[in-house]
Write a structure and sequence with these properties.
The complex is a heterodimer of chains A (about 220) and B (about 220). With about 220 residues, chain A is an all-alpha fold. Chain A has eight helices and no strands. Chain A starts with a helix and ends with a helix. Chain B has helices at about 5-10, 10-45, 50-60, 65-75, 80-85, 90, 95-120, 125-130, 135-165, 180-190, 195-220. Chain B is flat, with a radius of gyration of 21 Å. The chains are: A mainly alpha (about 220), B mainly alpha (about 220).
Chain lengths: ~220, ~220
């Protein structure tokens, strides 16, 4: 137990980094998801193709591979671009930003499918009726479509969030000091790896249970309306 | 991008491809064999075993695969009684640890898929089978399990792709899988894109093969709802 107390600050710091990263990533994922879904639902063929490529490629490549490409490759590309244009000097991307961006980008593809499915679940007659009444698109999107997308998208959103939270563990591989990284380090230093890895196992399980209960309650509130 | 680098090192990628393929296939096989008894224990609410199966499945689905892999590879070595037992011959091998972690993870997901399918087998089929005098075991073996399996095909195809994506973590514990081959190439020639992009393309190729295979299986075996 003394060992646990000794490394408690570092483990707690890791937990906050993990939670912060998960929240930052999910915001980005929602953003990419909305953009992706509007591309895929667009009447414009080019936009639809871009949306299609986005979701297919992301589904095909493992998340860690994408993360390594974006983290190491992105760094090089940004610096080469800076050199070529002379607009900026040497930039070093922080693992937090790279991690949040990559996870957001990956789950944006899954959110695209979630939002697209939720949109398609709304009867087309409603949109036609709104058009017939002369309501402008900006207005019916905000007041008719959007309020219905949320309850339709919620079950899938819950799944995506649960997977996203677990995916944040990968950032420990690119050196971000999240829960897994710090627990692993503490385990090595104290020669009790099982204990500290078990702590991170239990914390992740706790986060999953909390999200599961919370989001299920939210979904019940929407469906009882 | 230097294509000749990739062509010259094709053997490295062939080795990686082979390791990825057998690790994933064997894990899916072991996971699939474990999943049926686990799912039955839950679906038939067998005392103790049902609850154990639920918590096994929930905790392995609710925590990152990376943590599970680290727990087995780094964690178990902490205990002297394990290091001194004959098990250590296996447990100090990275391959065996990866195989154990992937199999348990896959068993947890497959268990949930099959359990869900078993619970959705129409009640009237079971009542009919009772009425013509089949025993409970016969009903399970001849009615419930075959129907549940056929209804699980689509969900299981996602689990197979998910397992392939998860298998890249093997490269973090020294195994030369596809990503491991990419990382080795990058480190050897001090490049960034060649190794990662080759790995990414090969992963995408495997994913499309899996999707294609499952589409054919589904056409043959799935039942319309």
């Amino acid at each position: 137990m003394d060992v646990l107390l000794e490394y408690l600050p570092s483990v707690m710091g890791g937990i906050w980094t993990t939670i912060g990263l998960a929240l930052a990533s999910v915001m980005l994922a929602i953003f990419f998801g909305i953009v992706g879904a509007s591309f895929k639902l667009s009447r414009n063929l080019t936009l639809r193709t871009i949306g299609g490529i986005y979701t297919t490629v992301i589904r095909g490549i493992p998340d860690l591979v994408l993360m390594l490409i974006l983290f190491f490759g992105g760094q090089i590309m940004i610096n080469e671009l800076g050199d070529a244009t002379g607009l900026w000097g040497y930039v070093e991307i922080s693992p937090f930003l790279a991690g949040a961006f990559t996870i957001g980008f990956i789950f944006g593809a899954y959110m695209t499918e979630t939002f697209r499915g939720a949109y398609l679940a709304i009867p087309a007659g409603q949109i036609e009726a709104a058009q017939a009444l002369g309501i402008v698109p900006a207005s019916y999107l905000r007041r008719i479509i959007w309020p219905q997308i949320i309850p339709h998208a919620l079950p899938n959103f819950t799944n995506n969030w649960l997977v996203l939270m677990k995916t944040t563990a990968l950032v420990s591989i690119i050196g971000l000091q999240d829960l897994v990284y710090n627990a692993n380090q503490a385990g090595r230093a104290s020669r009790e790896p099982f204990l500290f890895l078990m702590v991170s196992f239990v914390v992740f399980l706790g986060l999953t249970i909390l999200s599961d209960i919370g989001l299920r309650r939210l979904s019940r509130r929407y469906s009882s309306r | 991008m230097d294509i000749s680098l990739i062509v010259d090192n094709w053997q490295l990628f062939a080795e990686g491809l082979w390791n990825t393929v057998w690790l994933v296939s064997l894990s899916l096989l072991i996971g699939g064999l474990l999943a049926l008894p686990l799912a039955l224990a839950q679906a038939y609410q067998i005392p103790v075993w049902g609850r154990l199966s639920f918590w096994f499945s929930y905790s392995f689905r609710g925590t990152p695969l990376l943590v599970q892999l680290y727990l087995i590879y780094y964690g178990l070595g902490q205990f002297e009684f394990i290091r001194e037992s004959f098990l250590w011959i296996f447990l100090r091998e990275a391959y065996i640890c990866a195989l154990i972690a992937f199999s348990l993870n896959s068993a947890a997901y497959a268990c949930e898929i099959i359990r869900g399918a078993i619970c959705q087998v129409p009640q009237n089929l079971i009542e009919t089978a009772h009425a013509i005098g089949m025993s409970d075991f016969q009903i399970m073996r001849r009615i419930v399990v075959p129907i549940a399996y056929r209804r699980s095909i689509f969900a299981y195809s996602n689990e197979v792709i998910f397992m392939l994506h998860g298998s890249v973590l093997a490269s973090t514990i020294t195994i030369i899988d596809l990503l491991g081959a990419g990382r080795k190439l990058n480190a050897k020639y001090y490049v960034t894109f060649e190794g990662f992009l080759t790995a990414a393309l090969l992963y995408m190729a495997i994913v499309s093969l899996i999707s294609l295979a499952f589409r054919m299986i589904e056409k043959k075996y799935s039942i319309e709802r």
